[in-house]
Each structure stands twice: as structure tokens, then as C-alpha cells.
From TrEMBL:
One of its GO terms (molecular function) is transmembrane transporter activity. The chain crosses the membrane at residues 21-43, 74-93, 105-129, 141-161, 240-265. This is Amino acid ABC transporter permease. Its main location: membrane. NCBIfam families: HEQRo_perm_3TM. One of its GO terms (biological process) is amino acid transport. PANTHER family: AMINO ACID ABC TRANSPORTER PERMEASE (PTHR30614:SF21), MEMBRANE COMPONENT OF AMINO ACID ABC TRANSPORTER (PTHR30614). Keywords: Cell membrane, Membrane, Transmembrane, Transmembrane helix, Transport. Gene3D superfamilies: MetI-like (1.10.3720.10). It is found in: Cell membrane. It comes from Kocuria rosea subsp. polaris. GO terms for cellular component: ATP-binding cassette (ABC) transporter complex. Pfam families: BPD_transp_1. It is a multi-pass membrane protein.
Length: 290
């Protein structure tokens, strides 16, 4: 029995491993030196003084700025996630339709919104909704953020659904046709549930993107977490410290979502005929041949 590995490069020998270790140590030392220089410069400018950090530990900072901003961020992100899933299901199924005109229209819509930057769509909806008077003026930034996130990320989810169905074994559709289902019913009843299960970790990772992109809303005056932090930091004269705390909040939330995606990838890997798509980069696989 022979065992082979599929990797992106040849297995390193002793000399290559020593060189890799040497470069890794040199890289760590370089990063440490840069961090020391940066921290020293910040200390000289007084950016590390306690009086610049203590305002962030007060109830005023969190109750009046950070927590309301975090709520606005989560509110927009949650609604954008729900609408993106609905958009992705509709147009993902449309791209898998048996009707060529439906496939063509859905493909054009998905590819268009995947190509347009999120910020451009937010600004477009901000100006369009505001001039059309479709909602109250105070709610225009909120809906501009939500719609921009929905169209972009919904298009990405539609492509995930399409690729998830194509990754399933061909026997899934053939089995549905054998028991008398039409291709469309086989898609809805057999293939789509398995594709959603297989692509769920990747979709959770896309939700991380939605959460992060809500920060673009500060450009169109949406009072999300970043905008609230900028107001707080500008008022207290500690903008650097405030943005650092906000960055930690984003990192914590996104890290929890990433852990959820990794857990779903492991948990669902044995519950679908299609292989779950990893939430992160490609991994080397091992194959056993006789």
C-alpha cells in the first residue's frame, strides 16, 4: 500500500527546513523590532498615557457612543444577512433553472452586482432613496447600507449555491429522476438542501464580510460603530485609542463567527453527499492508493 500526498510544493529536506526556520526567526525578530519602534514613538507622543485610555472605560463612552454604534452595526448586518440569503436563494436557483432566459437574466444580475463595489452601491442607494423620498430621511442611510450589502453579498451567496449544487455527485439528480421527480423538483427537494448544508460554512464566512462592510456606512452618515467611535475619539482627543478598542470589538465578533464556520465545516462534513467547502484557504489532502 502506497501513500501519496497532494501538496502545493515538494516535501522539504533537512537543509530547506533549516532555511525555513531561519527565515521564520528573522521575520519574527523584524516584526518585534518594528513593534518596538512604533510603541516607542507612540510613547514619546503620549499616546500610551493612561489619561488617553481611561475615558474608554467609563459608562459614558459605552452607553452614549460604543454600544449604540454596535447596535446599529448589528442591526444593519442582521437584516442584510437575512435579505442576502433570500436574494441568493432566488437568483441561485434562477441560475440553475432549466429555462435559458431565466438563467441568462439571473446570471447578468448576479455578475453585475458582484462586480460593483459595495461602497458605490451604498452611495447610489443613499442618493436615490433620498431623492425619491421612499423612506423617512433619518432612515435613508440605514436602508442604503442594507441594500448595498444585500445586493453584493446576495450575489456571492447565489454563486455559492450554484457551485454547491454542481459539487454534488451526479447520482443525486439521477436518483431523483429515477423515482419520478422532474429536474426542477429534484433540484428543490434533493439537491438544494444538500448544497445548502455543504456551503453553510462558506456562507457563514460571508456573513463576516457583511459585518465588516457595515463600517463603510460612516461615509454616508450611518451611525454605526466606526462612526460613533470617530465622534467619541474626536471629542475626547483620543481617536487612536478609540479606534483601537473598536478594532478589538470587530476582531472579537468576527473571530467568533470564524470559529462557528470552522465548527460547521467539521460538523456537517459527514452529513452531506457533497464535501463541505472550507471557510478558509485550501488545505492539503491525503489520498491512499493501493
Amino acid at each position: 500500500m502506497a501513500k501519496t500526498q497532494n501538496v502545493l510544493f515538494d516535501v522539504q529536506g533537512p537543509r530547506a527546513r533549516r532555511l525555513t526556520l531561519l527565515f521564520n526567526v528573522a521575520g519574527v525578530l523584524l516584526i518585534a523590532a518594528l513593534a518596538w519602534v512604533v510603541l516607542g514613538a507612540l510613547a514619546e507622543q503620549g499616546q500610551l498615557d493612561a489619561d488617553r485610555w481611561t475615558p474608554l472605560l467609563t459608562a459614558r463612552a459605552w452607553e452614549n457612543f460604543l454600544l449604540p454604534g454596535l447596535w446599529e452595526t448589528l442591526r444593519a448586518a442582521l437584516l442584510a444577512v437575512a435579505l442576502s440569503i433570500a436574494f441568493g436563494l432566488v437568483f441561485g436557483l434562477g441560475r440553475l433553472s432549466q429555462l435559458a432566459p431565466v438563467r441568462f437574466v439571473c446570471t447578468v444580475v448576479v455578475e453585475f452586482f458582484r462586480a460593483v463595489p459595495v461602497l458605490v452601491m451604498m452611495i447610489f442607494f443613499y442618493l436615490g432613496i433620498g431623492r425619491a423620498g421612499l423612506v423617512e430621511p433619518a432612515n435613508v442611510p440605514f436602508w442604503a447600507v442594507v441594500l448595498g450589502l444585500m445586493f453584493y453579498n446576495g450575489s456571492v451567496i447565489a454563486e455559492l449555491i450554484r457551485s454547491g449544487v454542481h459539487q454534488l455527485p451526479k447520482g443525486q439528480r439521477e436518483a431523483g429522476l429515477v423515482i419520478g421527480l422532474t429536474p426542477s423538483r429534484s433540484l428543490r427537494m434533493i439537491e438544494l438542501p444538500q448544497a445548502l448544508t455543504a456551503m453553510l460554512p462558506s456562507m457563514v464566512s460571508q456573513f463576516v464580510v457583511i459585518l465588516k462592510d457595515t463600517a463603510l456606512g460612516y461615509i454616508i452618515t450611518y451611525p454605526e460603530l466606526l462612526a460613533s467611535a470617530r465622534r467619541l475619539g474626536s471629542g475626547d482627543g483620543n481617536i487612536l485609542q478609540t479606534l483601537f478598542v473598536v478594532a478589538l470589538v470587530f476582531v472579537l465578533i468576527n473571530y467568533l463567527l470564524t470559529l462557528l464556520a470552522a465548527w460547521l465545516s467539521r460538523f456537517l462534513s459527514f452529513r452531506t453527499a457533497g464535501r463541505t467547502k472550507p471557510a478558509e484557504g485550501p488545505m492539503a489532502a491525503e489520498e491512499t492508493t493501493v
